[in-house]
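Example 3.2
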Amino acid sequence: MHSTKDNLQVIYEDNHLIVINKRAGDIVQGDKTGDKPLSEITKEYIAEKYNKPGAVFLGVVHRLDRPTTGIIVFAKTSKALTRLNKLFANKETQKTYWAIVKNQPPKKEDRLTHWLKRNPKQNKSYAHTKEVTDSKKAILDYRVLKKLQRYHLLEIDLHTGRHHQIRSQLSSIGCTIKGDLKYGADRSNKDGSIHLHARKLNFIHPVKKEPITFIAPTPNNDAIWKACND
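Structure, written as tokens:
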């Protein structure tokens, strides 16, 4: 299931950046598990593809939760990294996610505003309808894209980037993401994934200064994601 340099799904690559379609289970950056992160696998891919001796530069710009799939952007030069960091920090990127939930949301489309309070011990964020101490404002728009046999496909536009934001906010309106035990799903997915996919990302290219849009195909080994594309 995890990526290796040979099955890495590269969506886009130029001299400045490389965009990967992350698989469920991949960690973007090294952590205490000691598992090989996607950043290292991508470095190996670049070293082999371009026959590069010595260390490959690769900058981590943003992250996705381990059980989530979809778009991850890495910088291939320090100049691109500085500029991409700025783009992401200043929210000059548009991020669109797909999520599969069991319960039908209260409305066909809506804006959700919560204050999220993070509990580091549980690695979980709790959504509150009013501001509480140490909470951060979280805003997203969702709309129902498709009704599946037993699930609903939602498209989500993020306006803030908080810890577990989509998972926490959807769970608070009774629409836990499929497989997301941490936020109330009744069962996990066999592969440990959750049905949350970073589908689309657009921003102005840090060097070429042109608008670029990336779209990540949904996991092809999953019947429910397949049904979303039919």
